[in-house]
Amino acid sequence: MNPASQPSTEPPLQAVGWSPAQDAVRIIDQTELPEREIVRDLRSLDDVARAIARLEVRGAPAIGIAAAMGLVVSLDPHAGESRAAFLELARAHAARLRETRPTAVNLAWALERVLQAAERGEGSPRELLQRMRDEATAILEEDRAMCRRIGELGAPLVPDDACVLTHCNAGALATGGTGTALAPVYRAVELGRRVRVVVGETRPLLQGSRLTAWELTRAGIPVTVIPDSAAAALMRRGDVSFCLVGGDRVAANGDVANKIGTYALALAARHHAIPFYVAVPSSTLDPATPLGASIAIEERPREEIARLQGMSAPLLPDGAAVWNPAFDVTPAELVTAIITDRAVYRPPYRFESRASRSTRDVATSANGGAASPGARSATSTTLSAEPR
Question: How far apart (Å, rounded) are the C-alpha atoms in residues 353 and 366?
Fold first, then answer.
């Protein structure tokens, strides 16, 4: 393992947000990390759709923020249209952005919130546009608060001298704040606990080695990168305290869609009697999707497996077929607990419907506040939760 280092006092990453004039979506281009830290301003519908599809901005919360702000930016040139024409364009632009990444529920949820701000508002298109801009800003601010809350609720699960095994990137690069899965790690370090992180490469795009290792190194938190295939061997050695991953969609029964490879990690954790925690914002809980089998799984291009980034030489022959799903679904029975900004849920997982959330969420949820009949709150713990 790497030697311990002191946490950085640098300000948190800002993976996604407004440009200073709020006329563009400003992102860190994650396809360039760790070699170069490049900030890009996205000023059109095409810019935003391309950035989301190409994973220049990624992570369910960050995608939702980028799409919400991108919808506003894309409509800036159309503020002089009639109200009807403006709203028609807004729906069309939202539909285009929604198609870029079908698995992450936050994308549709955030777009629907911004659309509803316009459709339920009064006034000219310019006034509607300001309402949409305010709503997108609120989504960013709520996301930051969400990260802090997940950190507070999850920190009791992180003991001193813990070794946390994570997958992909669910930190500051994936959100508007300190992350989901990494938020309890950051909070535990703030509280003075010694925490080490192990992350798998996360093939084929290496978000673990390129992004999580870069982010944690930048923050001064000890991190070790392993091949994805080494995780079970590390568990067998007794070097892992628990697993902590993010999620892109959580079904009503607690099944979790996350980066491909999460399911295999959960199976290995169960075999070695290691807790397997999932940390997600409450907006990622999807009571309208009953089971993980109902979640649409995005398939990525062949080229991501056929060639490594920055290399021209192929990694497989032209005649070889490729299956490249971006996500898999981990069954609820393999998940020890789900940490959200509302509570730490434990089996059996029965989440509150969107209809039972705040009036604001009801008015703007991606599923129109629809709930399955008889939905009840899941068993949960709060800040007093103890590791178990």
Answer: 12
Tokens of 119: 């459709």
The amino acid at 70: G
Q: Exposed (0-12), middle (13-18) or buried (19+): which is 247, by Cβ within 10 Å?
A: buried
User: Is the backbone peptide bond immediately before 281 cis, with ω within 30 degrees of 0?
Assistant: no
Q: Taking residues 75-98, report their average pLDDT.
A: 96
- 136-159 mean pLDDT: 96
Average pLDDT, the chain: 87
> Catalytic residues, which ones?
248
Model pTM above 0.90: no
Q: How is 237-259 classified by DSSP, letter by letter?
A: TT--SEEEE--SEEETTS-EEEE
Task: Return the residue matching tokens 């939760």.
Answer: 385
Q: Which residues of 14-52 are buried (b: 16+ CB within 10 A; e: fewer)?
A: ebbbbbeebebbbbbbbeebeeeeeebebbebebbbebb
CB atoms within 10 A of CB 3: 5
Determine the Cα–Cα distance for residues 324 and 302; give it in Å rounded to an integer. Answer: 7
Spatial separation of the C-alpha atoms in residues 324 and 363, rounded to whole Å: 36
